[in-house]
Amino acid sequence: MLNYLWFFLAALFEIAGCYAFWMWLRQGKSALWVIPALISLTLFALLLTRVEATYAGRAYAAYGGIYIIASIAWLGVIERVRPLTSDWIGVGLCVIGATIILLGPRWSAA
């Protein structure tokens, strides 16, 4: 369960960092937005390493589902755009997939 906390915190920092770059490059804000962007993206990377997983690729794949939840929440809370029902259905499917990747049985590929 602690993995989901790390994923959620990592997602917030990743989205915030990318959003800061978005504000600078797409919205014409000051280049000073790069400073919090880089700090936020560094924290994102550090937090993602806290996940209990044997392989980084599996952790990153599972993280993708949580990132999608956080992105849709960001859309609603920060950008003030109401997510569509189809957004939430997609989120649900991604969370199921992330959970299977992270906690599913490990059968041999051979």
Summarize, please.
With 110 residues, the chain is mostly helical. 75% of the residues lie in helices and 0% in strands. The mean pLDDT is 90.
Number of helical runs?
A: 4
What does the largest sheet look like?
none
The average pLDDT is 90
* Number of domain modules: 1
Secondary structure tally: strands: 0
Shape: flat
Computed Rg: 16 Å
The first-to-last residue Cα distance is: 30 Å
Overall SS class: mainly alpha
* Approximate strand percentage: under 5%
Q: From N to C, what is the helix and strand string?
A: HHHH
How helix-rich are the residues, as a percent range? over 70%
Which stretches are low in confidence, meaning pLDDT under 50 for 5 or more residues running? none
InterPro entries: EmrE-like, UPF0060
Membrane topology: Multi-pass membrane protein
Family: Belongs to the UPF0060 family.
Transmembrane segments: 6-24, 31-48, 60-77, 89-107
